[in-house]
Amino acid sequence: MDTKMPFTYYVVIINDGEGNVGVLQKGRYLNYFSFVNGKNRMRQMLSVGGRPWDEMLDMLIELKVKIVVARHFLPRELAALQQKGIRCFTFDGGTDAAFQALCGGKLTEL
Question: Are 12 and 30 within 8 A, CB to CB?
Fold first, then answer.
């Protein structure tokens, strides 16, 4: 990911509540990052609250998310996200490590 882009964009890393990257549909929290001119300006943890998938998708769109990182995507989730122009990446491990890997261009886009 090019973090030097001269505009604001938003990244979500799904969190399982234990500090690990979780499965999108079963995620308990969203780690929500905003970048402005290539710098991380905000990190916020938002509760998903057991929302159904369609509500979570609406939430991601409302938050203007451009990238989602999760341990696993169901095929319909992946298709719906990509249809909305949201880029998807997978990662096993912790959310901080996922964030660093994304910024370092070490994650492969699905």
Answer: yes
